[in-house]
């Protein structure tokens, strides 16, 4: 596996508990990756930690293994909390903690939006050992519950900000402050920040972190030791596509002999685009699911479940799916729309080529996207190559007719169901544009 450093020893050498080494082995995880090798001993020493490493390089175990090791020395009460930006990522991390700690009867609570507040409050009252939460929902509990529910938070030993860079943006400022305000003071807990894109905001915390009497913060960026910011096994290509034929190109690529069996995530910038593409491709007999913020949580969960199980081969998603999701089978990421933030490209493309596997990212480039692509290339320090697998204009023209017809059907159905109206109402309620 490419991302495991050579001669890295094993988890026992890093002082990970024996029971956990066995649990990791049963998941075929035997050799620590570079970020795990660097951070696990430092976290076990009691130091705060900022860990920066590429997508798919094993950051979750880099923070989970030392926390679980320490917890197992005295497995009582609320021990650690992981905050993460999206519900699906929180679910995934909670599942990982549960799987790793099952032999130790671990209790993990998932506190995310879109699920029953009452059930979550009952879970919290049972004093779970670990909480994996999205900031908004945890802040809600903190502001609306008594000590019996959230009092245990004051005794937590660890705070993890996973995808720290995004949690430190304005979107999360208020909720994050509420969450952190309910924890022990910074000097009495260990603070662990992890991300694939270390931003200036994350770096600033490094300087602000010094606390008298506390061991020095450990900061580690694997990226600094590598000139390219994306996995080596990720192939990056671009394709110039006029706006009016984007759907036809997408359909043609997804059904071409090179990709007609590939598991793919198609990233779009807006929920309405996700909905149009899902309906259009479904009409054209592609096994497709979608994931965006305008779907009820149950549908979001079902979609992801179908995609993970390969019942759906293609997932059309907004950036709710760009962070952290670990689906080893994904072979292709299509940037159907290009994001204005180059770091978003890194996270989106990072849904493939994980843990040393091969993967491919294609960017659809319209006239107005050229400067965005240049910014991405500068950020990742790599030039994209031209995508050449599907270029026959006669074939595209042929696809165009049936794709256009399917799209027209989709738009009519959406109008009938007032999809746009629902979206506008929700956006107004949220006071912001949602993804
Ligand atoms: N030491 C290891 N050996 C083999 N596989 C590993 C190892 N550590 C982690 N993995 C696997 O690698 C995959 C990616 O790990 P993980 O999801 O933690 O990546 P990440 O660095 O957090 O990525 P992202 O930045 O996208 O969130 C997971 O399937 C995980 O089980």
Automatic annotation (TrEMBL):
Keyword Transcription regulation in annotation: no
Q: Does the keyword Acyltransferase apply?
A: no
Query: GO molecular-function annotation terms?
Result: ATP binding; ATP hydrolysis activity; RNA binding; RNA helicase activity
An annotated GO cellular component: small-subunit processome
Give the DEAD-box RNA helicase Q domain ranges: 9-37
Q: Name one GO biological process term.
A: endonucleolytic cleavage in ITS1 to separate SSU-rRNA from 5.8S rRNA and LSU-rRNA from tricistronic rRNA transcript (SSU-rRNA, 5.8S rRNA, LSU-rRNA)
Localization in the cell: Nucleus
The entry's keywords? ATP-binding, Helicase, Hydrolase, Nucleotide-binding, Nucleus, Ribosome biogenesis, RNA-binding, rRNA processing
Which Pfam families does the record associate with it? DEAD, Helicase_C
Q: What is this protein called?
A: RNA helicase
Catalytic reaction annotation: ATP + H2O = ADP + phosphate + H(+)
SUPFAM superfamilies documented for this protein = P-loop containing nucleoside triphosphate hydrolases
Which top-level group of life is the source organism from? Eukaryota
Instruction: Give every Helicase ATP-binding domain span.
Output: 40-216
Q: What is the lineage of its organism?
A: Eukaryota, Fungi, Dikarya, Ascomycota, Saccharomycotina
- What InterPro entries would the database entry show? DEAD/DEAH_box_helicase_dom (IPR011545), DEAD_box_RNA_helicase (IPR050079), Helicase_ATP-bd (IPR014001), Helicase_C-like (IPR001650), P-loop_NTPase (IPR027417), RNA_helicase_DEAD_Q_motif (IPR014014)
Q: Known PANTHER family for this protein?
A: ATP-DEPENDENT RNA HELICASE (PTHR47959:SF24), ATP-DEPENDENT RNA HELICASE RHLE-RELATED (PTHR47959)
The EC number on file is 3.6.4.13
Which residues does the UniProt record annotate as the domain Helicase C-terminal?
233-396
* Residues spanned by motif Q motif: 9-37
